[in-house]
Design a protein that fits this description.
The relative contact order is 0.14. By secondary structure, this protein is α+β, with helices and mostly antiparallel strands. Strands 7-3-10-9-8 form a five-stranded antiparallel sheet, with helices on both faces. A three-stranded antiparallel sheet has the order 4-5-6. The protein has helices at about 5-20, 25-30, 40-50, 70-80, 85-95, 100-115, 170-185, 190-195, 205-225, 250-255, 260-265, 315-335; strands at about 55, 65, 120-125, 135-140, 145-150, 155-165, 230-235, 275-280, 290-295, 305-310.
Length: about 350
């Protein structure tokens, strides 16, 4: 275990390096921070931190920089989440409240996160597998043709055409709409198949074929929409950090183009708390020089998807964690109210 003083020295090194982009020396630390000890003692503490792998000496510079291990300890023990100011919170709320539908919510969230953190923003669309049905609408387009509209609790709207095996009257349509919603409204999508399997038996024999066709279309929609979708923005922000990437920026950009990689980076949506993966904790080799800060978002206190940012390991962790958490909270509120 590190002493409290050495933890203070590590915190100071991380803060100075993130702020100045320059390796940090003992003299600068004692001048900038009230550590209460001499430069010689700070040098001894820095030597001990280096021996334990928390800081390293780049090139032949007299200064030190944090390692992945050092950032990890900083995030776990030393960094509080920086709260957003009241004007920042109002700006987030006003920007997101103008959204007209789910696609607009996601697009605005990506743009906002990239602007707030000046890093790459990634937002996962709410997954239907973790969503509930708000309403199922059935509209008659022709005697034997219907439109099925599925509305989720996250504001997602899916439309499908249904070609019926026989004409279907307005009275039967109203009956099916009412019975269907009484069974599935407010229920998880994963529960829907079991809730509707015996529904055709509630109708006259001549209508059962159409009811079965409507239900098949509904269940096919769930299967089709299980594929996870992402939106990404702010990749140009990485060019500001060219010297933070030890080789070239290309491997980072190539990794960010792979949706499967990004989904793994964000992690499981069921984990709603702020997650920070630093450097080599990211399994994809192209992202070993980056950190990923992600958090779950959703309505009703349950996460339905993830959002986050990707940037260099030399990032403002308290500020980034605060921004990601605040944006997720407002997106969840908007989904709940939509």
């Amino acid at each position: 275990m590190l002493s409290e003083r050495r933890l203070q020295v590590l915190r100071a090194i991380v803060q100075d390096y993130v702020g100045t982009e320059e390796p940090v020396g003992s003299k600068a630390l004692t001048e900038r921070h009230n550590l209460g000890v001499s430069p010689a003692t700070v040098r001894n503490d820095m030597a001990a931190l280096e021996d334990e792998g928390f800081i390293a000496q780049p090139h032949t510079s007299a200064g030190r920089i944090p390692t992945d291990k050092g950032y990890r300890l900083f995030v776990d023990k030393l960094a509080g989440v920086k709260p957003m100011t009241a004007p920042e919170r109002r700006a987030i709320q006003n920007f997101l409240e103008g959204a007209v539908d789910l696609d607009d919510v996601v697009a605005r969230t990506v743009r906002l996160l990239a602007q707030l953190t000046r890093q790459v923003a990634v937002v996962q669309y709410p997954s239907l597998t973790r969503s509930t049905v708000r309403h199922v609408e059935l509209l008659s387009l022709a005697p034997a043709r219907l439109m099925l509209v599925l509305i989720t609790d996250t504001g997602r709207v899916e439309q499908r055409m249904v070609d019926c095996p026989a004409p279907f009257g307005e009275a039967s349509l109203a009956d099916l709409r009412a019975r269907l919603n009484s069974r599935v409204a407010g229920r998880r999508f994963t529960d829907v198949p079991g809730l509707v399997e015996d529904l055709p038996e509630a109708f006259e024999a001549e209508d059962r074929g159409t009811v079965s066709t409507v239900l098949s279309t509904l269940l096919e929609t769930l299967v089709e929409e299980n594929e996870e979708r992402l939106m990404i923005g702010g990749t140009a922000n990485l060019t500001r950090f060219g010297h933070d990437f030890p080789l070239v920026i290309r491997p980072v950009l190539e990794a960010l183009e792979e949706q499967v990689v990004l989904l793994k980076l964000l992690g499981e949506a069921k984990d709603p708390g702020v997650t920070v993966r630093i450097g080599h904790e990211n399994a994809h080799e192209g992202l070993n020089s980056t950190s990923v800060v992600s958090v779950g978002y959703g309505s009703g206190g349950e996460a339905v998807a993830k959002l986050g940012v990707v940037g260099p390991t030399r990032m403002d962790y308290p500020g980034t964690m605060g921004a990601v958490r605040a944006v997720a909270r407002y997106v969840g509120q908007i989904l709940a109210e939509s």
